[in-house]
Specification:
Largest sheet: none
Order of helices and strands: HHHHHHHH
Number of strands: 0
Radius of gyration: 27 Å
Distance between the termini: 72 Å
Helix content: over 70%
Strand content: under 5%
Shape: rod-shaped
Oligomer: single chain
Number of helices: 8
Number of domains: 1
Length: 204
């Protein structure tokens, strides 16, 4: 493995950094997003039950004890239950945007790695080919054949490494984005349901 890294030339250093960052960010985001997934249907039912009994404080505690963006948005709505629908909706919207920002944090870095890794691989290909042509220009006998193969190896190794980093990172980014999309959709749905419950309660 070390020999392959050396043969890949200097471009392998930024490629190695890309792989380390992609792995670290991917693990952290995966842990954060999967950990925040809860059964929001059960959560909302518990909140509805407490609100139906007039136990607003208990409903707030249920929401705050739960993890995830949906729980945070519901807690923001319950905290302003005594205000009008538009005011409650505004507070929930602000909290929702904050939660979306938390979920999308560092996903842009993964997108950047997906973009630049193949480009770095192409850069290594170019520098490797340039090295090979330089060797060919100075070649005086078969003793230079090994030097020629070094440039070719650099070109192939860096291209392959760039793709090896980019492809799984792209797949991971797509999966993480799907989690965020589902969470946002669930957040909007549960927010509307809570608003309807609070509206019904204020009319009683």
């Amino acid at each position: 493995m070390l020999r392959i890294f050396v043969l890949g030339g200097p471009v392998m250093i930024p490629l190695l950094l890309c792989s380390i960052f992609a792995l670290a960010i991917g693990i952290e985001r995966l842990w954060y997003l999967l950990r925040s997934r809860i059964d929001t249907d059960d959560l909302l039912e518990d909140i509805k039950l407490s609100l139906g009994q007039g136990k607003v404080l208990e409903a707030m505690q249920i929401a705050k004890k739960s993890r995830g963006p949906v729980a945070a948005v519901l807690a923001a709505g319950i905290a302003h239950y005594d205000q009008g629908r538009e005011e409650i909706k505004e507070h929930m919207s602000v909290t929702g945007h904050e939660e979306i920002h938390k979920m999308e944090r560092r996903l842009g870095a993964l997108d950047l790695i997906v973009t630049i890794s193949p480009l770095l691989g192409i850069l290594g290909t170019v520098t490797g080919i340039i090295g090979s042509f330089n060797v060919m220009g100075a070649m005086e006998g078969v003793t230079q054949a090994s030097a020629l193969s070094i440039g070719i190896a650099e070109a192939l190794i860096t291209t392959a490494t760039g793709l090896i980093i980019a492809v799984p990172t792209m797949a991971l980014t797509a999966y993480l984005n799907s989690i965020v999309t589902n969470q946002v959709a669930d957040m909007n749905k549960k927010s509307t349901e809570l608003l309807n419950v609070l509206d019904a309660g204020s009319e009683l």
